[in-house]
């Protein structure tokens, strides 16, 4: 099998007159005891350094490197060969290395800026989407606020109309039955049934007003205290109900 497919390094001559790389011929002789070129019997004891060929090959290699290699490679080859290097060559090499370093730093900085710019664009898009979502939610809340305000105003107006009709009824207790019936029909449904707990004109309160004077005078202090405690309990319950409604609304909106 052929050996030394590239330029010979550390040339050695065989007894049959052929030259090979030292490592190549030694490796071959470990497997076979013949010359790779002429098949003549050969051992490692029949190998001799070929100084002349080795010198010529080194010169040829240096010439090829000087034509094709970069200054850095030429400098490295010179150092490997033990050649003296002048100050001028060192200055040229330092300039080349500094320029190479500056170029690499410039390329790295450009890559970092590109990565940072892409990240900022992505972050900006994300925040704009979040802002649009918040603005949409805010618009919905504004519309709900306006609707609730309108409904509250309607409730206030209904309450005022109801109070005015009550005053008219109180000023004219002997008014016609049709008028009283009209008041009752117009006021039904304006307020929730819980008005009976707030002092409104529920059926229980009307019955209480129909009681004669002697019955009202018989109300004991214990009953009044019981009513006061009942009103306090209702206030607490009403407060809890408001908090529960607030929590439900908060979960709905948020």
Q: How would you concisely characterize the structure shown here?
A:
The protein is mostly helical and 254 residues long. The chain has helices spanning 22-31, 51-68, 71-80, 87-171, 177-187, 195-198, 203-210, 213-217, 221-253, and strands at 11-14, 19-21, 47-49.
Task: Provide the descriptors you would attach to this structure in a database record.
254 residues; mainly alpha; 3-stranded antiparallel beta sheet; 9 helices; 3 strands; coiled coil
Structure overview:
Helix 4 (87-171) packs antiparallel against helix 5 (177-187). The protein has a domain at 11-68: Zinc/RING finger domain, C3HC4 (zinc finger) (Herpes Virus-1, 2-Layer Sandwich). It is built from nine helices and three strands. The chain has a three-stranded antiparallel β-sheet. The protein is rod-shaped. The chain is mostly helical. It starts with 10 loop residues before the first strand and ends with a helix. A hairpin with a 4-residue loop joins strand 1 and strand 2 (19-21). The chain has helices at residues 22-31, 51-68, 71-80, 87-171, 177-187, 195-198, 203-210, 213-217, 221-253, and strands at 11-14, 19-21, 47-49. Pfam families: zf-C3HC4_2.
């Amino acid at each position: 099998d052929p050996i030394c497919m590239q330029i010979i390094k550390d040339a050695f001559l065989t007894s049959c007159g052929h030259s090979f790389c030292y490592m190549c011929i030694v490796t071959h002789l470990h497997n076979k005891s013949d010359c790779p070129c002429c098949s003549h019997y050969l051992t490692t004891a029949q190998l001799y350094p070929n100084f002349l060929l080795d010198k010529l090959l080194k010169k040829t290699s240096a010439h090829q490197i000087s034509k094709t290699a970069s200054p850095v490679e030429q400098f490295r080859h010179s150092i490997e060969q033990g050649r003296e290097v002048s100050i001028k060559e060192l200055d040229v090499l330092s300039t080349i290395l500094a320029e190479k370093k500056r170029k690499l730093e410039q390329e790295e900085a450009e890559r970092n800026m590109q990565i940072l710019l892409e990240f900022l664009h992505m972050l900006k898009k994300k925040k704009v989407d979040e802002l649009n979502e918040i603005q949409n939610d805010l618009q919905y809340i504004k519309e709900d606020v306006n609707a609730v305000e309108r409904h509250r105003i309607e409730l206030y107006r209904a309450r005022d109309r109801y109070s005015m009709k009550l005053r008219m009824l109180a000023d004219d207790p002997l008014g016609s039955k049709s008028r009283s019936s009209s008041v009752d029909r117009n006021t039904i449904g304006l307020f929730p049934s819980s008005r009976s707990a707030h002092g409104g004109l529920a059926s229980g309160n009307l019955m209480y007003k129909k009681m004669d004077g002697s019955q009202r005078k018989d109300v004991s202090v214990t009953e009044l205290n019981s009513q006061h405690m009942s009103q306090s309990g209702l206030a607490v319950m009403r407060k809890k109900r408001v908090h529960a409604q607030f929590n439900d609304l908060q979960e709905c909106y948020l």
